[in-house]
Amino acid sequence: MGSVRMDGRFFLILFLINCVFAKHEQYIGYTVHGVGLRNQDDIVFLTQLQVELDLDVWSVGMVGGRDASIMVKPALRDQFLNALDKRGLRHYVERDNVYRALEEFEEDFKQWRMMRSNAAAAPYDNYARYADIEAYLDRLGQEYPNIVTVVNAGNSFEGRPIKYVKISTTNFEDINKPIYFLDAAMHSREWSTTPVALYTIHRLVEDLRVEDRDLLENIDWVILPVYNPDGYEYSHTDNRMWRRSRSYNASISAECYGVDLNRNFDIFFGQISVSSNPCSDIYPGPYANSEIETQHVRDMLYQYLDRTQIYMNIHTYGSYVLYGFDNETLPSNAAQLHHVASAMGAHIDAKKLPEAVYYSVGNSAFVLYAASGTAQDYAQSIGIPFSYTLELPDFNKYHFLVPAEYIPQINGETYAGIAESARMSYQFYRHRLN
């Protein structure tokens, strides 16, 4: 029998095939189910079931308008469906093969990048890796030193610099200008949020148009494109559906990493929509502000507190503009909060695609669901007048796996809403000074 000679290239190919398969294989057998909602009690039921069965709630839905979307492990599927049937809830399969969906998304993204000659040059028009985002911010700081300052808020748990930009025509020294504080990618898998933050920077710095000069001249900006760089990178390299940070504490769990950063702030901590299971996607951490990423953003909020008029915490998906509080109480300026949120949503809706749902606006506990320890509630509680959670669109079908070709659409429509809310924030800030 003759021997078969296999060179290093053969083994390299086998290794790469294995790596691709291993990246998503944990989701083999996973399914996503749509669940119809009749009332708020159904939402409470689903959030309780989320904790009991360690479900991954992609979208909790909205009574009378939007169904919930829930990813389920194969081992718990029958138990989950039986619970829905027992309660009499309508349900159906939205994705019958999550593994295949992840494989197809990755392959489509690779093909899309191969077709674009300028992909690396435009991180705001791409699902860029963190190193490319850092390089983009640093380049802007070097090329536009009169208006852009790149700041390292501190390092992440794994040692990555958490960089943000300050954009100002007056070196952040004019007390008559409000600050607009915007961040993105708090939850790792929400890739479409970072291009919005980067595109906002691009429009204010590289592509400032005549009609937008007031946004630069009247307002100072703090923009953090990647709140959770460790998780963001992990979602690119190892687990596309990773949501949490990447901190590790062997005394809490020897096998599970990370914390839901939007449950980690020191407000109503550990009370609502959380799990004590350190492996859960809604694990809030061992104590409030336990995560270094939370601490950095908390310190930033206090650093710019005197002039910050709007805090915008960008997530995806669902098409919502939400405000506090999650304990079902309202801030004293709830009417103004709703007014600005409605204007923002309307400006986005004016540019939306026909297949996208219209934005819904309101208190997060009533419109979406209550959660404790959120950045939105914390920023409002320490004195930022207008604090919001913005949930971007998924075009009613893509969930977290929005194809890259939709990035320009999301950027453009969302920027219109950001611009309108910034202009309104300026007017409210002027009134605040008088």
TrEMBL record:
Domain Peptidase M14: start-end pairs: 126-425
This protein's GO CC annotations: extracellular space
Cofactor: Zn(2+)
Keywords, comma-separated and alphabetical: Carboxypeptidase, Disulfide bond, Hydrolase, Metal-binding, Metalloprotease, Protease, Signal, Zinc
One annotated GO biological process: proteolysis
GO molecular function list: metallocarboxypeptidase activity; zinc ion binding
UniProt-annotated catalytic positions: E391 (proton donor/acceptor)
Residues annotated as signal peptide: 1-22
Family label: Belongs to the peptidase M14 family.
The name this protein goes by in its record: Peptidase M14 domain-containing protein
Record organism: Pieris brassicae (White butterfly)
